[in-house]
Amino acid sequence: MSIRLPARRWWALGYLGLCIGYTATTALALRHAWTLAALLLWLGLAWLFRWGDPPHARRAAKAWPWSLLPLALWWVYLYLADTFGKVDVGAVAFHLQAGIGENGSGERIIAAVVYTLAGLVMLGVVTWLVRADHRWRLLERPLVLFLLAFNPLLFGLTLQGASIVADDGAWLERRYTPPRIAARPADPPDLIYLYLESTEATYADRARFGDAYADLRKLGESGLVFHGIRQLDNTGWTMAGMIASQCGTPLMPAGLMHDSQFEPLEHVVPGVDCLGDLLADQGYHLTFMGGASNQFAGKGLYYREHGFETVLGRDTLRGQLTDPDYLNSWGLYDDTLLDMAVDRIRDLKAQPQPFGLFTLTLSAHPPYGHPARACRDRQGAFDGEDILYSVKCTGWLARRFVERLRREGLLDNTLMVVASDHLSMKNSAWQSLIAGPRENTLMLFGDGIRPGTVRREASMVDVLPTLLEAMGFTLPTHRAGLGASLLSPARTLVERHGVESLNERLRAERALQRRLWQTPSTESP
């Protein structure tokens, strides 16, 4: 039996109402339960105004909606917002140019297919509505303007364009201090830097997250813990967080100003000196170890170009696994990686030259994490969705790693850093995360580090000068890059101007962006 036309009409209008409700709750970061309220409101208006079945209907069987492309762009935004929470145009631009292969987000491919199919169905429904109801044909042009003006994906580009016109584009460049070591300690300490993927200090709030951060809180009791480390734009993904903390500047993508904007990057921020460059000049042997592929997002390229002699990723380290099948979609699990890091540190400690070892965990990678076998043995079964389980796993593995190094004497004359790479993107605890202020994790441990707490408004660009001074190096004016040492009285840019003001300046900045991507062949005479 065929479905009657009125039934088809209400199915179509109902689907369109669901799409509108989902879009509204996603864009406004509301719980998706509000989608039902939006649906009921939409259906009420559809019944009141007889949408799709107007009196004196003037149908146009061949009419095509003007809004199809703007609506498709909204579906692109919805996919990105569902994946990351906050759509970062800079992150999209950088990853497209630096390379998105070799990533572990295979589940997002399935989501992309679902979003594509759902979007195509919606475009079909809108086409039917415009053809069936002449009133909607009249609304098409103002609807197009509305869809373009309020799409957050395009809104960010519009704000950036307006900032470029309104500002001089060199505000940050004038505040940039090229990193320079004025004096070194008699016996430079080794450096071990443990990046905790997406494990922000916001999780320390027991009221919202229970004991997810308990092991990191306990670990912090023996070190210097920093509070107030905010996130600036262009520092909110792994490569950007690493560059912010090591180079003292946000990662402003090369974009269209780059000579080879349609080709893969050959260099990553070649125009600035970063922590690796500075330490290599001081005679340090530098190593990076990560469980994921170094091909993703230009990670290996960045480290090799900035002073690191040894860069180890999934492709190299998987050959050392006793169980070759013990891998997740990104690469090595963290219990394996950190065991390998301990072995590497033992070898480096036996050498006469100072060393720096940097490593990055994967356990708390959004949306659900990849908790290691050691955590599942300790914490019980993982339901596959609870990010707090994965955060707790990361904290316990980090604490175990540091305490193991301490017991073996591997932290003698060593600065140990435990820090998040950036704030978490969208995960299963998202509504709780965005319910209040957020901050990154930053802890320092070492022979000359007195345990305690430092509360200052800062950002990840302040990490570079802070680490150098914690290691005993002397910096002119306590500054490096855009950062100020949090161990000094020098005021940070966040303290002076606030996060929102700095983000506005970032949208307008062009001079510092040119500095980041300026290679020797493009330097001015």
From TrEMBL:
InterPro entries xref list: Alkaline_phosphatase_core_sf (IPR017850), OpgB/LTA_synthase_biosynth (IPR050448), Sulfatase_N (IPR000917)
All residue ranges annotated as the Sulfatase N-terminal domain in the record: 189-472
Record keywords, A-Z: Cell membrane, Membrane, Transmembrane, Transmembrane helix
CDD domains: LTA_synthase
Subcellular location, record wording: Cell membrane
Residues that span the membrane, as ranges: 12-28, 34-51, 63-80, 109-130, 142-166
Topology class, membrane: Multi-pass membrane protein
PANTHER family: LIPOTEICHOIC ACID SYNTHASE, PHOSPHOGLYCEROL TRANSFERASE I
Protein name (database record): Sulfatase-like hydrolase/transferase
Record lineage: Bacteria, Pseudomonadati, Pseudomonadota, Gammaproteobacteria, Oceanospirillales
